[in-house]
Amino acid sequence: MRRVAVHRVWVASTRQLLSWQVVEVNERGEAVSCHPFSEETVRTEWWGGLLVLSPVTCRLRRGEPFADFCARTADEALEALRASETSGVSDVSGIWGNTGTENTGTEMTGRAAPSGAALPLRVFRVTPFEVPTLRLLSSSRLLPVRG
Predict the structure, then answer these.
(1) What global pTM score does this model have?
(2) What is the pLDDT of residues 103-115, one digit of tens each?
(3) Are 33 and 105 a contacting pair, CB within 8 Å?
(4) For the chain, which end, N or C, has fewer CB atoms within 10 Å of the first or last residue's CB respectively?
(5) Close Cβ partners of 116 (under 8 Å, ≥ 6 residues apart)
(6) How is 68-118 classified by DSSP, letter by letter?
C-alpha cells in the first residue's frame, strides 16, 4: 500500500477536481481511499502535482488543454461505466461512493451500485503539471501508480 499526498486529484468518473488530497493506492494501482490532506502522517509521500483516478486507462494528447483532458477522460469513464451496466453495475452516479463536491474522506472501493458491483479506480500521475494555472505541459506524461 502506498500513500501519496498531492495538490490536485481529478476523479474522472465524478468530474471532481479535488485540492490537497491524500490517496492510498494498492499494489494493483487502484485507489483504496482519498481524503483531504490535514496533517503529516507516517509513510505518506509528497508528490505534489496531479493524480488522475479513472476506471479506464487514461492517455494524454499532446497540446491538449487540461479542461479538454478532463472532459474527455470523464466521458471515457462514463462510457466504461455504462458498458459495465450489462455486467451488473446498475447505477453510475456514485462510482466512488460520494457524489457531492465536498470530500471529507472516502473509501475508493469503486462501488457503483449498492449491490456491490465494482469498477476499480486506477491511479495515474501527471508529471510535470503546472498546479497554479492547471496546465498540462508539452513534456507532461501520464504514469500508472502502484502501491
Answers:
(1) 0.81
(2) 455 554 443 322 3
(3) yes
(4) N
(5) none
(6) HHHHHHHHHHHHHHHHHGGGT----TTTTS--SS--S-EE---B-STT--B
